[in-house]
Hints:
- Helix 2 (about 40-50) packs parallel to helix 4, helix 6 (about 120-130) packs parallel to helix 7 (about 145-155) and helix 7 (about 145-155) packs antiparallel against helix 13.
- The longest helix is centred in the C-terminal third of the chain and has 19 residues, at about 295-315.
- The protein has helices spanning about 1-20, 40-50, 75, 80-90, 100-105, 120-130, 145-155, 170-175, 200, 205-215, 270-275, 275-290, 295-315, and strands at about 30-35, 60-65, 95, 110, 135, 160, 180-190, 220-225, 230-235, 240-245, 255-260, 260-265, 320.
- The protein is globular, with a radius of gyration of 22 Å.
- It has two domains: about 30-160, Rossmann fold (3-Layer(aba) Sandwich); about 165-320, Dihydrodipicolinate Reductase, domain 2 (2-Layer Sandwich), CATH 3.30.360.
- By secondary structure, the protein is α/β, with parallel strands linked by helices.
- It contains 13 helices and 13 strands.
- A seven-stranded mixed sheet has the order 12-11-7-10-9-8-13. Strands 3-2-1-4-5-6 form a six-stranded parallel sheet, with helices on both faces.
Amino acid sequence: MYNAHVKAILLLLAGALCAPAAGPPAELRVGVIGTDTSHVPAFAGLLNGDPNAPDHIAGARVVAAYKGGSQDIADSIGRVDQFAGDVRTKYGVEIVPDIATLLSKVDVVLLTSLDGRVHLEQARPVIASHKPLFIDKPLAATLEDAREIARLAKAAGVPWFSSSSLRFGAIGAAMKLPGLTGAATWGPGPFEAHHPLELAWYAIHPVELLYTIMGMGCESVTRIAGKDADVIVGRWKDGRIGTVTAVRPYSDYGAVAFRGRESVESHPKAAAATDYRPLVVEMVKFFQTGQPPVSNEETLEIFAFLDAAQRSKEQGGRPVGLR
């Protein structure tokens, strides 16, 4: 009897050692927090749409969404029900009453609430549940909130990333060149009255594009504020200069990169510039591997850049160091 018992234990151990390592499920269950942005039906369409469509992305599916919404932002409260209805009827997404319910049904989370002010509080339970997290723009409403999200995630060992779609789109891809000495980007820069970092609301897109080209290392920012546009000039530690023109209310997107006497311009049509598919491809890879496609450190420096730009404006356009 004793020998038979030992043999059974050894067989169980051998089976455990030979079993393949557990990995992510074949199709990750995605939860959405905040249905008040057009990004939500766009992301759901790419993940939940016709699997035979050329733009379909396999490996993840949006299964549940919490509507959220901010009463004091017209673009939020005026669209939150519409987009929730779209993803429910078109893509079979369950609308749930709260974040706790959402977390019980999903493997990973897209925090897509339009209002950056609520991102820290909405991220807290996600981080506590140890679920990988993508945070749509803007990462937060303040630099302090952005850093607190990063601190909580690091302490809990939860992978996260945040990025504009422009980083992975046509413009960003065209600018991945060695030896660049500087760059200029442009794009929309409307403000939202409740967001203290004015440029975080929408100019985050051309700012992220500048960082896609220049990389980390900015040490000071000067912001020249005008009626219809702002020009933000960043000085990098190695002497390179990068500029962003944020146009109000809206403009198209583009970039020029400099390499000695050579310049390279990318100015695609609007549809190509704002294509979400490359970003969603990166999201799925991130959820499968836990490796963010853009470092958390770079994302936080981008927010420090936005914070410095705000302080520069408040000081009459003086150069201000990143903090």
